[in-house]
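Interim report to the steering committee. The following record documents the input for glycerophosphodiester phosphodiesterase (330 residues).
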Amino acid sequence: MRPEPLSPPILIAHRGASGERPEHTLAAYGLAIDQGADVIEPDLVPTRDGILVARHESEIGGTTDVADHPEFAARRTTKRISGHDVAGWFTEDFTLAELKTLRARERLPGLRPANTAHDGRYEVPTLAEVIDLAKRRSVEVGRTIAIYPETKHPTYFASIGLSTDEPLVRELQAAGWTTPDAPVFIQSFEVANLRRIAGLTHLRLVQLLNAHGGPADGAEGSYAAMATPTGLRQIASYAWGIGPHKGLLWHDDAPTTLVADAHDAGLRVHAWTYRAENAFLPPRFYRGDAPGDHGDLIGEINAALRLGIDGFFTDHPAQGAAALARKDLP
C-alpha cells in the first residue's frame, strides 16, 4: 500500500523551469507556472544596497554576463563563504542598479546547450518582482502560485552587515503574507537562522537536509544526525517540514524510513532536486549513454511519490506535472 502524505503532493519549480530557461529569471518562473508548477523557488542573496535578488549563489560569474563588462573587471575577487573559497563576482559588491545592467546566462551549458539560446535576454530579478509575478499569474491562471524562498548563506551575509532574514520577513509581510496558510515556504540549510525566523513570522519554515556534511552555522553536527527520529523531532520544534536531498530517501535502491520518520514527527517532506539529465539520475533511470541525455525522470519522481512525499523540487515542471498525473500509482 502506498503511504499517504501528510499533504497533497505539490510541484515546486526549482529556480523556475530551469531545465528549459536560464535559472532564476522571470522567464523561467513564468514558464514553470505555464507547465503546472504550484510553487516557484527563488534563492535569495543581497545586493550591496541590501536588496534581495534571485540567484543560486551570490557569485554571479557563472550565471550572468558580468565577465563581459569591462567596467566590473576589477571587482573579481576571492571570498571565503560557508567554509569554502569562491572566486568570481558577487552580488554583495554590486548595487541593484548595477546588477540590472547584467543579463542571465545558462549555468549548465554543457548539459543544457539549448538553453544558451536564451543567454543575454533576461535580467536578475528582485524578490519583489518574483512576488509580483506570483500574485499576477495566480489571477491569470486561476490558482494560487506560492513562492519558496531560500535564504542563502545567512551566517556569512550577517557577518558582512547584510543580514537577509529580517529583510525577507519584512518583504513578505509587505506582500500581506504573515500566516501559516499564506502561499509561502521559507527554507534554509542553516539552523540558527530558521530558529530566528520562527520568532519573526508564522509562515511555514522548511529545514533543508543535504546528503552529506552539516549546517554551515555549526548549530548541528551533521545532517545525518538531523535526519534521525530524534533529530526530526528537534526540527519539528521550529519548522513545518524538511527538504531532504532525494538520495536520503533511498539506500542501495531500497527505501529508507526518512519519510515515515518525518511524518511521525509531524513534518512534511519536500525532496530535492529532480532533474531529467542522466548526470543527475540514479543509474536505474538512465536512458541513453551521454550525461546530457534525458532519462526516466517521471519514473524517478513516481518512485518518490510512492514513498509518501508531500512535494518535490524539479528543474522540469512539465515532467513533474506528468508524474503527478500518472494513473498507475498505487
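The chain has one domain: 10-57+122-325. The committee is asked to note this result when reviewing the revised timeline.
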